Fold each of these.
Amino acid sequence: MTCIFCQIASGKIATDLLYSDEHVVAFQDIRPQAPKHVLVVPRAHVASLWELEDRELAGALLLAAAEVGRSQGLGAGYRVITNIRKHGGQEVPHLHLHVVGGHPLGPMLQQD
Ligand code: AMP
Ligand code: ZN
């Protein structure tokens, strides 16, 4: 098993989990882009949102992102992002939701 997020989800790589249920785990991003930056990750290997077909898992991921927002104290607002494949800037090929917040985030897309 070479997938880093499969290894974290299975416990092969010990990581402090901020949320865990039968479908999903959540943990801190190692290179946080904001004061709070948590990754919500399915236990099952799904490469990206493109490949996601399991409705129960889809619901579990979204509800976990909502729960992480609450547990991280992000009531002022935050953002949930998933990068998909090459043009989406996806670096880790295991589906994950970024839960990002803790300060005002500004425009969603930079006009470069
Ligand atoms: P993406 O570009 O959407 O694939 O984002 C991948 C994210 O995973 C990046 O924000 C990385 O900082 C994060 N990341 C990579 N490896 C780890 C790890 N071992 N533990 C926590 N976060 C990680
Ligand atoms: Zn994986």
Amino acid sequence: MNDTFLKACRGEKVPYTPIWIMRQAGRYLPQYRAVRGRADFLTMCRTPELAAEVTIQPIDILGVDAAILFSDILIPCAAMGQGLEFHEGKGPLLSPAIRDAETVKKLSVPDPEDTMRYVMDTIRLLRKELANRVPLIGFAGAPFTTATYMIEGGTSKNFLNTKRMIFESPELYASFMDKVTSTITEYLKAQISAGAQAVQIFDTWGGIFSPADFREYALSYVQRIIKDLKNWMKSERDETVPIIYFVGETAGLLGEIKTSGADVYGVDWRINIDDALKRLGNDAVVQGNLDPLSMFLPKDKIEVKVKDVLKRASSAKGHIFNLGHGVVPETSPENVIALVEMVHRLSKK
Ligand code: CP3
């Protein structure tokens, strides 16, 4: 198997810097849009054959060093009992919005093999179809980021309802987060049991907090998940899989993030990766951190930026190249193919 990604996650020596791209299976690829033309997004997530097909597309097309399960961080919200819909151009809609003790009480902590079996079936199918070409990354939203969608009922600009619940009804928030955290913990265990070889926890909206509030209202729940997963892997499995923690708007929160217990820290592009390493420590393994919109530069200018990231990350114990956030739908696949080639060529030892 091409195990450069897993080796880099563990801080082991690698012949070149591995790369995968957040949202690598998505609308910027015409091959994805062709499948998407036949099925809506949730049907794709719920049909293992379709989800597996689009998971593998970027492996064939881009030559990346890891596959990421095609699914969505909002799938567990539906499993907990909230209505979930995706509408063209509007993003996700969750109903009813979770705003009071009544709605929290109605949510369940589901058995993932029961309510989200199709995700685990997709993972089992992918491990067969990938046949050890590259490792498979599973994922979930972090409890806080997941909770913002559940409380707001969808995407939000200023997270008013979420912060109001946190600041006006901290006990309600804590009881809600307890359910979300247990759900996500069990979900990640089920993904690992089904064959996920690494997992990433997406805390896309963690950056809306001050460091102290981030620690209390977002990070504490991630620490609980990681501790639980690591204890479980040690006691019930022979192998531990690497855990990656990605937070959006990382720069002000690195001191907090390094206490998460994760094996790999995602770093967005708002900070130079060597400065991030100074805060995380040189024994840290980092993932990132090219601005996703730098994919709109001409290729020679992309190459300058790739060299810069590689050089700045060279003192890290491990580096997995990635964009600082998801690739946007307007991106030219040709430039992403070129990016993967550049990272491999320029980092070759
Ligand atoms: O990385 C991958 O390729 C794996 C698949 C993946 C998707 N979503 C597929 C998707 C992953 C890892 C996600 C995570 C996700 N989903 C996050 C965290 C990552 C991040 O970008 O910060 C968040 C916040 C979501 C929630 C979500 N899903 C929103 C707000 C939307 C609608 C906005 C949009 O881009 O349309 C989605 C839909 C979604 N998830 C699509 C894909 C490919 C587009 C659906 C389509 O084809 O119409």
